[in-house]
Amino acid sequence: MRCFTVLGPSQTGKSTVVEKLGSLEGTPRKSSSPYGLNLSEFTFGNEAWCALDAPGPNEALAHAQHALLASDACILCVSSAPEEAVLAAPYLRIIEASGTPCILFVNRMDEPRGRLRDVIAALQDYASHTLLLRQIPIREADRIVGSCDLISERAWRYREGQTSALIAIPESTAEREHEARTELLEHLSEFDDWLLEELIEDREPPSDALYAISSRVLRENRVIPVLIGAASHGNGMTRLMKALRHEAPPVGILRQRLAHAGTVDEGKLLAVSFHAYHRQNVGKTVLVRALGEGLRQGASLGGSSLGAVQNLANGRSNSAVLPAPGEVFATVKSDHLRVPSLLTPGAVIAPPEWTEPPTPMLERILVPGSERDENKLSETLAKLSETDRGLKVLQEEGTGAQLVRAQGPVHLRELCRTLAEVFHISVTDRTPSPIYRETITKPSEVHYRHRKQTGGAGQFADVKLSIHPNERGQGFTFGETVKGGAVPRNYFPAVEAGAREAMEKGPLGFEVIDVGVTLSDGQHHAVDSSEHAFRTASKMGVRQALAEGSTVLMQPVFRSEIHIPSVYSGSLVQIVSALNGQVLGFDRDETAKGWDIFRALVPGGALEELARALRSATQGIGYFSKTFDHFEELYGKEADAIVRAKEKPGTAH
After folding, report:
1. Whether the predicted pLDDT of 523 surpasses 60
2. Distance separating alpha carbons of residues 12 and 63, to the nearest angstrom
3. Is 414 exposed, middle or buried (0-12, 13-18, 19+ CB in 10 A)?
């Protein structure tokens, strides 16, 4: 079986392309996962094929990446409008990072919204590989009625619901065809010395030789050939499928590529897991592509026994099934198989780095609907994060509530739907609050005496403490300058512990940071003094001093790395500035053509708005990662509102 992924932005007709390709010589067998990955098995040219139709939204990019891990080649569907080329940028980025041979298909050419050469030029801004036009459209007035193949120099006229008709190249197209063919041959000659010599000697190379060169350069992932058509009318589908059949590499090449990327012994690499999901009353289902011989139910794979092998289309298990190299199958009761991963008989090996999805930007606290759901939620989210790498699960600082990081609003809705429909856990979500702190702005001194008589031995401790602001990031420090044994040394740790305890909640209601405490003097009693008494005296004394120390609210500031296509870079300075952030600089992304990386400092309270503004400004393409950098003072109405909100449970911490 040969396997390819069809991917691209939403509304480019990917699913229609898969449907038409699968129906060229029969009826395809279809299956789908809750995450939107659809599979079609069909026959073409007496060969078995499996098409992986990756979900289109940018929030589901992780599933497209994982599908590429199991694919011999891919088809990137793009719009026929030049201004929409940027929407394909994330897909070109992951395709090139993966090393997957790609055919670019300009769909919906029956409704062109620009010149094809402008579409290719706009897309080339985001592709390191040369986009090599293999067909040109035949126009009549404003309509595209057919295409001309630049290698065979044959022209075809589209016929609705029928196979295209072979025609002579129209005179109106001949000049453009000659120009485009010359350009094609010049590019191909860069990869073939024989062809270069033929062109230098002004000899016309035969079509068979050109097809062979085209096939080789695609298998070697040297260029991205470009084909055109209109899938909704069936136009260009046979040519596209023939290109896959004759030019896409076999499964053995994929095995070599994965073994090299994962530093695995090729002979031991038996399979690759690329998708998983949970089904009610079934459990975890893992999709696997066989790369070697010997796979069957009960065989050793990933260090344990392979569970039941299921038919993709009907879900039926058959212990006698022996998946051949290249076949895609589902397996249950194989929970030890992580997704995605490279699989040998004895190990589950981490996938290549390029499969890491974009950093999730949307943070939400999930609130279960009942106490019973609360007990199940943590375990269930852990399961879901295993099958959806675009999801990160943590705990909220201070409350321990379940905090999830999702790729965006659609991703979050799908997560809540899965929790409800598959695991019967009802949740609502709320926005987490930034982690605020407080500190003091001026030093103070306090003399505190703790005395308590309860019958028998009492409690007595007397401390004189100096409290002062520390430098930013220095944290809490403790020292002592006691002379003459006024406070015995064995009580110093208790005094420090009491001071630390006082820092847990300051006058504004937040943890206190960057404060130094010095024990300068005090008194003790031979009978009534104790560690507990000095700890209490220190805690109460420090609390009193903090209240007198002009406390100020501190907000977290994060160092953000923002990844966006260069065409949107001009709007980013304004976005960051509007959020009271600071742009530190930007560079071209050396790993992805046409992308920039911005570095900025952004207040923690503005990260939610940054994600929203970034989605809006970049049509959902841009994303950012964050790391905590420092705390800084926050004054005025905003600070007052945060302090007031702290008095209401569950709002700020």
Report:
1. yes
2. 18
3. buried
